[in-house]
Structures are given as C-alpha cells and as structure tokens.
C-alpha cells in the first residue's frame, strides 16, 4: 500500500488538535456512563438522563461495550467494569438460549426476529472486549462467530443475509447495504483478534459487491436496498423517507463511512500479506467526493443533509451527528492514505461544523440531530443515545489504518 507524507501544517500532526480530540473523547465517555442499567445499557435523553422505566437494548449495549473497551485500552481507568457489565448482559437475557443469537431487548421472546445489523455489533463488541481482557468475552466472541457463520454469512452471495425469524426458519427477502457495511467493520476486527484472514476475504467480497459493483456503476452513490437476488430496490421506503435505518434514496453518510472502511480494508489486506486491489482507494476517494458534492450545503445551510433522492436532490434535510463524525473520520483516513491537501481542508471544515453546531457544552455530549436550519432537533434521533460514532471519530485520526481500532489501541500503535 502506498502512503504519502502529510501536508504541512496538518491538523493530524498538530499537538493542540490531538489534545482537543482526546479531551473531547473523555467528555463523551463521562456522559455515556449514565446509560448503565442493571441488564445492559440504554439510551440517554438530551440532558443525559435515563427516562423513567428506561429499557436496556442490545444495540446500545453492544456499542457501549465496544466503546468502553476502547476506553480501557486507551488506559482510561474504571471502564473495564463497564465492559464486563456489557459482556454479562450480552451473555444473559439478551441472548436467545433456545435458538441462539440475540434479541433486540433482554428476554425478547416476542421480538420479530434476528437482524444481521445487530449481530455485527455484538461481534464487534465481543472482539473489543476480548482485547480489553473482560471476563467471559472469549465465550461471547465464540458465540458471535458461530452465529455469523451458521446463519448470516452466505458463501454463495459473498455477503450477509439480512434477518430471520426467531427460530431461523424464515429469512427476510431483502438484502441491505447498511448491515453489510457494519459487517465489514466487524470482520476487520475479527480478523485481527482471531488471526483468521478469512474474515478479510469476506469483507472484500462484501465491498466488491456493494461498492465496486453497484455503487461504482451508480456514480458512487451507495444503493442501500436490494431484493434477495441483489437486484436494487430504488423505491424502497419511498413512503417512509426518514426511516432511521432504511431510508429511501441515498444516504451520503454511508458513502463517507464506506470510504473509510475501504481504506481500513486495503491496509488490513496489505498488512496480512494478501494484496489489495487498486479499486479500494479509488472507490474510497470517489465515494467521498460524491458525498461532498451532492450533500454538503446543498440547501443553503452548512452541513451534510441526511438523504438524497435519485436525482441528488435533498430528501431529508436534517443534519445528523453520525454523518459528520464519519465525514471527519473518512477525511482523516483519505488524508493519511493520499496526503492530498483537499482532505485536510475537509477535515478542518467538518470539525469546525461539529464544534459550532453539534457539541453541547451545556448539557453534555453532542446534539444528535439538527434541523434544516442547524438548530437542535429530535425528530429522527431523539435524545443522545449514541457514543459510538462520535467517540470513534475522535480516536481514529491518531491511529494507523490497520490494524483495526481496538487492536491498534491494544498494541499502543499510533500513526
């Protein structure tokens, strides 16, 4: 893999910016600790409180467990207990003792089914918890890998199936780019923790199908929704354009997230001695460029809009915090990989927007949603339940593109 010297001066090498990133990461961690419930972690409101009767859920629990493991690996004291709390929850009532896999909520016998998106985060949490040395994390990782291989991974398709009924009998006739994107992230971590390069090969097959196949042929706009035969469904959820997980049209934030993951995949393949196709960096750059061209400040206000229609017109004009966090992380990765000054400019621009509009120095954490006029809102993302996107964006610029995030911290690897 070719890497390039960073332009000078560069925020990534600026000690004051590094100190700011790490201090902001600690501020987010301190806020997120309040999400702890007896049976896992739940979502916090805009002031950082758990609502009366708040319920733990598996997605928050997996993401918090992963993030608290990163904090422990950073050397932040006190977080290992939170990691072990998360592992215990994921091995407790959140896990289906009858059929295997994970419910969306503890003891969820009536849950609609088993989702690939959720299980990818359980695998990510388990891999990070193993590196953190959490009790029972190896058993959680073993269970997560077994479920992924037994039910979700399709060798024929080179991707994950989307979801099943509780007993695994009824597959959903749908394939999603979002769940498979997070599978790439989880697979990179699994490759590092298990030493099994098969996970890298699987991640490459996913990326080749969804990005180098479909997105590249669509102007590097990520197609999100497919039928069971991987035929695009361009009108999917047209009547629900603001769906938080399966919105209609294109989601520029996912193009930014994919851009970063392609570079991590390229670096991981090279590190493993497997060789990486040249299209990984080319597609990463094209995804980033398309997202910035079509989604940044396209409606008269700063920031990335949430979704676009197929003519690149803004559909849902809300600005979401995770999109901008991923923009910073992608710009940093592209800057590391190419050394091109334009990524330095985007990196500074996106952090400036986050500092001006998302960071909440009064109530804590970040606003998760802004309206079309960049005022705090809560229509799509009520409260402040998410630590994962912002926290990772604050850590990644100081780390190499490979190994994966937790493994870099465990090995005390810096750029």
From TrEMBL:
Gene3D superfamilies from the xrefs? 1.50.10.10
- For the keyword Isomerase, the answer is yes
InterPro entries named in the record: 6-hairpin_glycosidase_sf, 6hp_glycosidase-like_sf, AGE/CE
The record, for Pfam families, names: GlcNAc_2-epim (PF07221)
Per its UniProt entry, which superkingdom is the organism in?
A: Bacteria
SUPFAM superfamilies found in the cross-reference section: Six-hairpin glycosidases
The chain's coiled-coil residues are none
Keywords, in A-Z order: Isomerase
What is stated as this protein's family in its record? Belongs to the N-acylglucosamine 2-epimerase family.
What is the name listed in the Swiss-Prot or TrEMBL entry for this protein? Answer: AGE family epimerase/isomerase
